[in-house]
Amino acid sequence: MITVIGIFEDINLAEEASSYLLGNEFASENIDIHTNGQQTNEHGDRVGDFFSHLIDDEKQAAHFASLGRKGSIVTVHAISQREAQEAVDVLNNYGAIDVNASDDSSSRSQMIERIVDDSKRLRGNYTATK
Known about the structure:
The protein contains four helices and six strands; from the N terminus they run βαβββααβαβ. The chain is of the alpha+beta class.
């Protein structure tokens, strides 16, 4: 599986992106949305745990977590490279923010070829059922 992450400043844009994906052949069980009000769980920082689990580079994981805590995160667990690229395009088109901390390249939605453990997924209080 390929995990695609988009971070949004506006929850409405995150929800619109998620709804668009659902209306275009993406399965609801493969889309998670996490809003900035849902930052802790019984073990601490959900957002920090998620990015630490997904990204090996501690500095990059901390940077993503910092941005994610301020906004809304849409995560798509894609089953193919084609589906992952479609998800990236949709999230970018709906306004995912620039997350690049280290160079001048344009880096908004991120594709990471790693399966996210179910216990680390950012399933929020928003249920994508539209």
